[in-house]
Amino acid sequence: MKTTINQVHKYVDQTVTLGAWLANKRSSGKIAFLQLRDGSGFIQGVVVKEEVGEEVFQLAKGLTQETSMYVTGVVRKDERSPLGYELNVTGIKVLHESVDFPITPKEHGTEFLMDNRHLWLRSRRQHAVMKIRNEIIRATYEFFNENGFAKVDPPILTGSAPEGTSELFATKYFDEDAYLSQSGQLYMEAAAMALGKVFSFGPTFRAEKSKTRRHLIEFWMIEPEMAFVEFEENLEVQEQYVSYIVQSVLKNCQLELKTLGRDISKLEKITAPFPRISYDDAIKFLHEKGFEDIQWGDDFGAPHETAIAESFEKPVFITHYPVGIKPFYMQPHPERDDVVLCADLIAPEGYGEIIGGSERIHDMKLLEEKLKEHGLDATHAYKWYLELRQYGSVPHSGFGLGLERTVAWISGVEHVRETIPFPRLLNRLYP
Fold first, then answer.
1. Following DSSP, what letter does each residue of 9-22 receive, concatenated?
2. Where are the alpha helices (DSSP H) in 204-298?
3. Catalysed reaction(s) (predicted)?
């Protein structure tokens, strides 16, 4: 019976064949222990000389790291194994011998590992991170489908920018200027006017010259947009969604979290509702904590967000930021003209902002004024966006969640470069 490692639990005491690679091995006299991987998981193969004979045993002892093979054996329960099972090997058929695999079970520098990212992905740790990423993606589709959202795909090439062009990658679109999308939000607003509740899930690009552990040049965003939804209801959707994906990872990725050494007691506390603190109160709090450098009207940096997050066990919403530090499309506070109806969701444990969201301006005249203030072209590039307020405008809200930061937080990984298969960083376009 040919199967995969994640399915061996169905075949206890039965003979199966796995297509696998050798991750590592050790031998002790007349027994060889093969650490096998097949993409679905890792399992130990035990080769006993007395049971397989001299030829198979010598073949097993001579296997090199990342050699590919078919391995046949009997599935046995083993409580000492992280998987709970091991394979008593009876036969091996080598498919391709791997020679001098560069990533050995020793310490390697970050740059070396990044240069060999195409091979580093095979490691047990990177496998665990990618499986958690996959579970978050799966749970995202499940959450939004179950809650009546339609998936819509906004364009990646755009003629306008939601948040200005300073951090955009520009290109020529025949005889016009175009940009790689930094957000699908404006298009999702149009989709929400047609379909009510929508979400997108795609790549976004920021030409931001940052080298921090929180930043990538290319990353993936989940961007829901909802018609007839105002500020408070928008926050409720966000906390329900984040709680859902965390609980899904806890349920379906126990082995991966254990591999990464993640403290799951911290994740078990992530259930809605989440605490909230206003920007005004956050400034006061930071002054009390000794951050005299931050003044009302300044945006928060990583140290400020971390200090605020440390006071809470759950993600925390920072609400009602000043108008001057937020994009043009955010709805002003009904009782204050200096702040907008927006919130950033800050993850615990120093992982920073994972969601930015707001109620959007739905009044056409106000939006015209804001476009003018920001020097944006309401007669051409943003004409269609303005027209959304001309034909049956309604209150509407949305948010964007950065996938890689969320993966980093949930998996407990230090740097976002490990949370995307092939990271694009300030000085890295290879591999």
1. GGGBTSEEEEEEEE
2. 231-252, 254-259, 264-268, 279-288
3. tRNA(Asn) + L-asparagine + ATP = L-asparaginyl-tRNA(Asn) + AMP + diphosphate + H(+)
Superfamily of domain 118-418: Bira Bifunctional Protein; Domain 2 (3.30.930.10)
Q: Whole-angstrom Cα distance, residue 245 to residue 140? A: 7
Alpha carbons 374 and 368: distance in angstroms, whole number: 10
The residues, ordered by sequence, that sit 6+ positions from 263 with a Cβ below 8 Å of its Cβ are 412
Whole-number Å distance between alpha carbons of 150 and 191: 9
CA atoms of 309 and 109, how far apart (whole Å): 31
Closest of 281, 338, 341, 355 to residue 311, by C-alpha: 281
Taking alpha carbons only, the member of 346, 319, 331, 431 closest to residue 389 is 331
Taking only the tens place, the pLDDT of each residue in 205-248 is 999 888 888 899 999 999 999 999 999 999 999 999 999 999 99
The span from the CA of 60 to the CA of 156, in Å, is 49
What is the three-class DSSP state of 238?
helix
Residue 116 phi/psi, 5-degree rounding, is -110, 35
Give CA–CA dist 18/69, Å, rounded.
8
Find residue 342's DSSP bridge partners: 358
pTM passes above 0.90: yes
Whether the per-residue pLDDT at 131 is higher than 70: the answer is yes
Per domain, the residue ranges of the chain are 2-96, 118-418
- Rounded to whole angstroms, the Cα distance separating 255 from 131 reads 10
DSSP β-ladder status, 85-96 and 150-151: unpaired
For residues 183 and 167, the answer to whether their CB atoms sit within 8 Å is no
Residue 29's CB is within 10 A of a number of other CB atoms, namely: 6
pLDDT in tens, 143-199: 999 999 999 999 999 987 666 566 899 999 999 989 999 999 999 999 999 999 999
Tokens 């440390």 sit on residue: 310
Of 1-15, 151-165, 324-338, 362-376, give the lowest mean pLDDT range. 151-165
